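TA notes, week 10

Several of you asked for a full example with nothing omitted. So below is the full record: structure tokens for the whole chain, then the designed sequence directly under it. When grading your own attempts, check the secondary structure regions first.
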């Protein structure tokens, strides 16, 4: 939305490979000393459910409903992803590029993430398992911005500062 309210509520709608997905944070996320290093979302792909979560009542056409609700894209990020599987862990290595809105230059960004599918009640253990896996394989476990947050950081610094102020991300 133009006022960033979806994002400020930690709701992330994306179109990937011609399919919509809404990332919704799990409620009651645990707060440990390293929990900020991992984010936990439910990934909703059912269009009716997405509209329900977004409290949109017009359900005739999904994209028309989004437009009428003033929900529009604010970022376009081209990503080349290389994925590896080791046991239950999925390692994604992303090479991303997007325009810097002030200059038009193309910005390149690389980021890696380790994913582990789990259930809400097992999230605390899954976080520990991910960190252990990374450390056992010589991977640095550190705070980093994901692709979208890097886009916001580079292009909308005032909005990024508001995310920090609201505690949605660490600086």
């Amino acid at each position: 939305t133009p006022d960033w309210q979806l994002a400020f509520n930690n709701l992330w709608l994306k179109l990937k490979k011609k399919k919509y997905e809404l990332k919704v944070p799990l409620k009651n996320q645990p707060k440990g000393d390293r929990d900020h290093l991992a984010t936990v979302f439910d990934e909703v792909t059912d269009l009716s459910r997405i509209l329900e979560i977004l409290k949109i009542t017009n359900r005739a056409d999904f994209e028309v409903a989004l437009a009428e609700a003033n929900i529009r894209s604010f970022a376009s990020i081209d990503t080349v992803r290389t994925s590896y599987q080791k046991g239950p862990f999925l390692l994604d290595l992303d090479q991303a590029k997007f325009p810097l809105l002030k200059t038009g230059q193309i910005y390149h960004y690389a980021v890696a993430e380790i994913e582990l599918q789990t259930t809400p009640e097992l999230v605390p253990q899954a976080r520990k398992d991910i960190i252990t896996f990374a450390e056992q394989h010589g991977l640095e476990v550190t705070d980093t911005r994901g692709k979208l947050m890097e886009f916001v950081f580079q292009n909308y610094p005032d909005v990024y500062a508001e995310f920090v102020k609201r505690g949605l991300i660490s600086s």
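Residues 30 and 124 are 7 Å apart (CA to CA). Use that as a sanity check on your answer.
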